[in-house]
Amino acid sequence: MAEQKASTSIEAVESGLAAQGYIASRQIATAVYLSQQIEKPILVEGPAGVGKTELAKAIAAWRGMKMIRLQCYEGLDEAKALYEWKYAKQLLYTQILKDKLGEVLGGAQTLHAALDQLHDFGDVFFSKEFVEPRPLLQALEHPGGCVLLIDEIDKSDAEFESLLLEILSDFQVTIPELGTVSAITPPTVILTSNSERDLGDALKRRCLHLHIGFPEQRLEERIVESRVPGISQALRRQMVGFIHEIRSLDLKKLPSVSETIDWARVLVLLQASELDTEIVRDTLNVLLKYEADIEAAQPQITTFIAKAARSNVFG
Amino acid sequence: MRENLHRFFRAARGAGVHVSPAESIDAMRAVSQVGFSDRTILRDALLLTLAKSQDEKLALGDCFDLFFSQPEPRQDQPEANNDDASQHADQSPSSGEAGDAGEGQPPEALGPLAQMLLSQDRNAIQAAIASAAGAASLSDIRYSTQRGIFSSRILDAMGLQRLRDELDELTATNPSLAERLRTALDALREAVRDTVSQGLALYAREEAENLRNEILRNAPLARIERRQVDEMRALIRQIARRLRERYSKPRKRQRRGHLDVRRTLRRNAAWGGVPFLTAWKRKHRDRPKIIALCDVSGSVAQVSDFFLLLIHSLHEVVDDVRSFAFSSHLIEVSEILESKSPEAAMAEIMSKVGFGSSDYGSSLVDFEKEWMSTLTPQTTVIVLGDARSNNLDPRADILRRISERSKRLVWLNPEGRLAWGFGDSEMPRYATFCSVVRQCATAQQLERAVSDIVATYQ
After folding, report:
1. What's the DSSP call for residue A209?
2. Is the dihedral of CA B110, B112, B114, B120 positive or negative?
3. Residue B259 phi/psi, 5° resolution?
4. Is the same domain home to B59 and B101?
């Protein structure tokens, strides 16, 4: 019974994401479903532009949740990711409350009594009012849950990874002055990485590991269909076939899904009805981002168009 | 079913996927969510929870396919019918025919195994093999030499003894039935042997690999066999990964107690210089800069090959490597090594400078003429060679100047210490100018030597 439910739920995830314009493969849908069920973050790896960040956006839109994004970069630290004390506000308040403090302490006879009275104030200046929540704390405190996107985790330092561990496994953080803040509703956490450096085992262990590669031809056609509705079916097939041929070349940066979509938009704008050498040559800079890559692809254009057209007939 | 999952985890470990207890718990939870009915979903779920990189995903996927091509010890799963079963049937066509002929005979007096064999119920036989394999703890198999003992254990668990007795009896009373049973038994043996081989492939890989690597680590690099070269390359890459992990940690060392006044003031400018945030001085450690001079003549060539491979796969640890190869003269090979695959690079290097008789003197002259200025007080110079200069002028004076200009001069010699100084070996003369001289004949010694060099920068 439960097993029946699982496969239908995975289909529900697929169609839910599709409604937001994100065509997910079976693996992606399974990962999203599982992360929801066993409350684990998803670590998404893959080349740039295959829709890692887009996945988080689609999940947020599908579930009607807020998306909180934390862009990682070198030197990102606790103060920028988790929380910070509002120093200026603390300073201002002590200045304003100077007289008040004097009043309160005025009644004390001895230094000792004054200290006792000060203790009674508690840690007014280290209370919630003076905490500036940064993305991670915001995500934990968001009522009703949210989607937390930790983007390009591989760009951050190794120390930052360790900071994330508590949040990822228990959905809580410890602030020394305030105690432990637990999530009201555990957020859905998506981490993305371009594999620029190897992530620590401790971090990987806490996540579901999802690798998104370049999609298969059929899937990519469906993605183009959902993103660029104005394109004709024949052209769509042809251009996706052409891009798959391009990916077989040894290039510096292979065109990924985002480039495919851009190219489809360009082709629609130019009102192309089918691929020919002329139009491909003119628009190749949309697909390939390096001069050397464009030069390597130039001589192959005609062959690739022919190949794409042929696979079109049989496909 | 839980038992099966545990066996799968063990098989996964054998396939080189690191499965910790915590991960296996996660995988269990995931599996309890998706169930066993849809195999592709089960596969995806296990891949998501257990594998942590693309390589591991591939290995685990293969492992999954191999593992679940085995029948599970459950009779209500018709798809458990696998290759073994069909092979089993193919090898006993005669028994099938005989089955038609001998129909109507009541084999009730026979034991369960005999009945099962006679009824040709493939699923039942497969299930029986699988459960007997479980009873004989097939997942403990480690070496290929254990195949026989595990086969006989499984057959015993299935009730071979009783079948034998019955066969003896039947030979006298009912020879045709005995003949049928005997063919079926042969086929059964075949099927059990296949099961054991599969078990070996699944569970024993880790042990076998460890053993082989251990032998390989201590084998002399210079006399390695051609077929082992690829394995050795894989081992060297493993060593490189380990060194990277150990030494690529951030190279900042805090000098506690030293306040960085300038940075503190600048950082607290917003609060009128009241130091809310303090900044402390940090000391930066240098990354190693390495210049490697490798002899590529004769027997040293192979060692140089592995050494260069190791040094050049340490990008994260080592800032800057420049490699030079020499036999009778010296050329720079850094670019060849960076741009080509190890095999192609080595072939090109050999075609350029290899196969000459080594002349350390003129090679050192070449180095001094062109590259002496690249040496800085942060550079470690590594010379790899046997110091056999064919009685030509060793030019140890150049080596002295190299040593004076650089941080350290390390000489790695593939020959044993006993041979140093005998024949045309100039090792003692060179050794006086070296910071360290060590023997470097096996992968293990190579690892230790490189690890020490990198560690001096920590």
Report:
1. E
2. positive
3. -80, 135
4. no
Set of chain A residues whose Cβ sits within 8 Å of the Cβ of B53: 45, 209
CB distance B48–A158 less than 8 Å? no
Q: How many domains would you assign to chain B? A: 3
| Token digits of residue B78 | 């018709």
Whether the Cβ atoms of residue B56 and residue A43 lie closer than 8 Å to each other: no
Nearest to B426 by CA among B398, B448, B453, B456: B398
Cα torsion at A33, A35, A41, A46 (round to 10°)? -40
Cβ–Cβ contact A110 with B under 8 A: no
Instruction: List residues in chain B touching A: CB distance below 8 A.
Output: 18, 20, 22-23, 26, 29-30, 33-38, 40-41, 44-45, 47-49, 51-54, 57, 249-250, 270-271, 274, 276, 316
The burial class, CB within 10 Å (0-12 / 13-18 / 19+), for A196 is: exposed
Is the CB of residue B8 less than 8 Å from the CB of residue B67?
A: yes
User: Hey, is B273 helix, strand or coil?
Assistant: coil
- The predicted structure's pLDDT at residue A66: 92
As a whole number, the mean pLDDT across chain B is 79
Q: Give B336 to chain A, closest Cα distance, Å.
A: 19
B86 in the same domain as B34: no
- Measured between CB atoms, which of B30, B51, B270 is closest to A38? B30
Q: Pick the residue from chain B with its C-alpha nearest to A11.
A: B41
Cα B31 to Cα B47, B152, B165, B336, distances in angstroms: 11, 34, 45, 49
The closest CB to that of B48, out of A30, A197, A201, belongs to A30
Question: In the predicted model, is pLDDT for residue A255 greater than 50?
Answer: yes
Residue B125, in any domain of the structure = yes
pLDDT beyond 90 at A60: yes
Please give the average per-residue pLDDT across A76-103, as a whole number: 83
Q: H-type helices in B280-333, by residue range?
A: 300-312
Q: Is the pLDDT score of B147 beyond 60?
A: yes
From residue B278, give the alpha-carbon distance in Å to each of A132, A247, B264: 19, 51, 5
Can you give the CATH number for the domain in which B446 is found? 3.40.50.410
- The size of the A-B interface in CB pairs under 8 A is 79
Strands B330-332 and B379-384: unpaired
Strand partners, A149: A69, A190
Whether residue B152 sits in one domain with residue B90 = yes
As given in the structure block, the two tokens for residue A187 are 């957020």
Looking at chain A, which residue has its C-alpha nearest residue B46? A208
pLDDT band at A91 (very low <50, low <70, confident <90, very high): confident
ipTM, interface predicted TM-score of the complex: 0.80
- The yes-or-no verdict on residue B93 having pLDDT over 70 is no
* Domain C-terminal end among B67, B87, B105: B67
Tell whether A165 lies on the interface with B, counting CB pairs under 8 A.
Answer: no
CA distances from A113 to A110, A117, A119, A120 (A): 5, 6, 10, 11
Res A41: pLDDT: 93
- Please indicate whether residue B1 or residue B262 has the higher confidence score (pLDDT): B262
Tell me the chain A residues in contact with residue B249 when contact means C-beta distances shorter than 8 Å.
Answer: 158
Q: Same domain, yes or no, for B102 and B249?
A: no
- Which residue reads 């990277």 in tokens? B244
**CA R_g for chain A:** 27
Chain A residues 135-164 with a CB less than 8 Å from chain B: 157-159
Taking 60 as the threshold, does the pLDDT of residue B253 lie above it?
no
What pLDDT is recorded for position B376? Answer: 86
Coarse DSSP helix, strand, coil percentages of chain B, rounded to the nearest 5 percent: 60, 10, 30
Please answer yes or no on whether B34 and A205 come within 8 Å at the CB atom. no
Are the beta carbons of A34 and B33 separated by less than 8 Å? Answer: yes
More confident residue, B55 or B410: B410
Domain that residue B182 falls in: 78-206
